[in-house]
Amino acid sequence: MLPLAALSIYIYYLGVDTVLLLLGYYKNLKSPSHFEKIFSDFINSSGFKSTTASNKTLTSAEVKTAFAALRSCMLSGVNSKLKMLKILSGISPLLGLLGTVSGMMISISAASQTSSSAVSEGISKALITTQAGLSIAIPALIMALCAGSIIQRILVKLSKYESSLLKKGSLI
Fold first, then answer.
1. How many C-beta atoms surround the C-beta of residue 144 within 10 A?
2. CA dihedral 65, 71, 73, 76 (to 10 degrees)
3. Are the beta carbons of 156 and 26 closer than 8 angstroms?
C-alpha cells in the first residue's frame, strides 16, 4: 500500500499542476486584445526581428514562425507531463493487482494451517490494493483527459489568432 500512496501523491500533484498550468494559458487566450499584447511581448522577448523597415509589422512567414515558437514554448513541458500522467494512471491498477496477487499467495499458503474465515479475511484484505489502484487511476485518467481537452482548445485558439493576424496584415 505504501507504493500506491506515494504514487497517488505524485500523480495528483502532476495532474493538478498540469491542469492549472493549462488553464492559465487558456485564460490568457480568452480576449484577442489581451492575447495580442502577450504575443507582442513574446515576439520582443524572443528576439524576432522583422525584415520590414518599420519593425512594427511582421511578414506572414514571420508570424507563422512566431506562432510555431509560441506553441512549442507553451506546450513542450506540458506534453511530457501529460504522457507521464497517462503512464502512471496505467501503472497504478497494475501495482494494486501486484499487491492483490501477493496477498492471495499468502492467504492460500495459510489456508492449510488456519480456518476458512481467516482465509476469506486475508483475501478481502488482499483485494483492497486492487481497489486502491483503481481509485487512484480513474481520477488520474480523468485529469489526463481534461488536460488533453484544454490543450486542444488552446491549439484551436492559437490557430484562430494566427489566422486573424495573417488576414489583418500581420500588424503587431
1. 25
2. -130
3. no
Per-residue pLDDT of the chain (172 residues; tens, 9 = 90+): 888 999 999 999 999 999 999 999 999 888 888 888 888 888 888 776 555 445 567 788 888 888 999 998 888 889 999 999 999 999 999 999 998 888 888 788 777 777 677 777 778 878 899 999 999 999 999 999 999 999 999 999 999 998 988 887 655 5
The DSSP bridge partners found for residue 57 are 171
Q: Which of 100, 102, 97 is nearest to 137 (CA)?
A: 97
User: What 8-state DSSP symbol labels residue 53?
Assistant: S
How many other C-beta atoms are found inside a 10 Å radius of the C-beta of residue 77? 11
pTM, full prediction: 0.79
Rounded distance between C-alpha atoms, residue 5 and residue 54, angstroms: 59
Q: Do the Cβ atoms of 157 and 112 come closer than 8 Å?
A: no
- Rounded CA-CA distance 85/137 in Å is 10
